[in-house]
Amino acid sequence: MNSRERVLKAFKRIDGEPDRIPLQFDLCRNLADYFGKLLNVPVNYTDNPYEDVTYRISANELRIAMGSDVVITGAAVSDDYLIEKDANGTWLNEYKMRMRQGDIYVEVVDYPLAHAESKEDVDAYQFPDPDAPGRFRDAEALVGKYKNDFLIFGDIEVTVFSLAHQLVGMEKLLMDMMMETEYVIPLFEACADYQTKIGLRLIEKGVDAIWFGDDFGTQVSLIIPPETFREQLKPIYKRMVDRFKEAKPDIIPILHCDGAVADLLKDIRDIGFEVFNPVQPGVPGHLPQDMKDNFGDMFSFWGAIDQQDLLPRGSDEELEQDIIEKIIILGKGGGYMIAPAHIIQNDVSPERVQLFIDLCKKHGKKLM
Prior knowledge:
The chain is an alpha/beta fold and 368 residues long. It has a single domain (3-80, 114-366), classed as TIM Barrel. Helices cover 42% and strands 13% of the residues. The protein is built from 14 helices and 10 strands. The strands form 2 sheets. It has a 7-stranded parallel sheet. It has a 3-stranded antiparallel sheet with strand order 2-3-4, with no helix packed on it. Strand 6, helix 9 and strand 7 form a beta-alpha-beta unit. Helix 6 (161-168) crosses helix 7 and helix 8 (184-205) runs parallel beside helix 9. The two termini are 14 Å apart.
């Protein structure tokens, strides 16, 4: 059974159970460079218009050499785009957000729509050109190289809600959502329109799944009331999924959504999402048995391994027991791909990364 069949079975797209629980992981640049040198595998980076997504869609050759069962691709920055850092080390990305490198992730320090109030303000803003030269060169190459053996995910993370708050600022957006300020729905629609174009181009290149990414939860609760999500955002996501299914009826819609979002999962399934990621551990409503019992008939799950504390600081025995628990519960009867809940960062040693991979393969097969 190759990786493509393994993941399709795990996601219940073809009959039968996989020969083992499929595996996926993302690596920060330091870890990718380390393993690339160690294994003598070239590490190819695809710079995404939103910087942190770069590490989702890069180093595919390395990751599959290390054991990942999927290939993840997405839009690249235009051939015409060049980072120009100012004296403070900040730069404008293609969205015209002013960025700086934080301790782990990039941060927006100036928002291009910080003063938006009206639909006209949104209409005046220019998104990056979806058809700029070089935008899908890497995606086309990866599909051509790996399509027969691996499931290919097209990543449009930072999709609607997250893209909107990166354009105007989180505090402003949340206040204006509650006040139903004129620009809010037009902004969500504009973000959706842009990312729909990106997703359709990826479908044209041959991806098997479209991976959305917007965070609606904190460590303890939802960011916005469920009613607000249903009124302002749910119809927009539904139109996007429907459009992708029109273009490719067997496309697999996937949602990455951090935080405690169990209260939204029925709505998320109504939208048409079939795979839920990252199943963030340690937040209310996300116990593995609760996820499987309450939502296992709605979704396949992808993720669930804690990269915040367990991977960098837990004992080897604790890591192994957590992997076993997730495989036994979430993988029962299929419907699970094991992965860390986010990109593995520098606080995880290379030895722990390798141990994680080895344990997932060992127990993913033994416990099936």
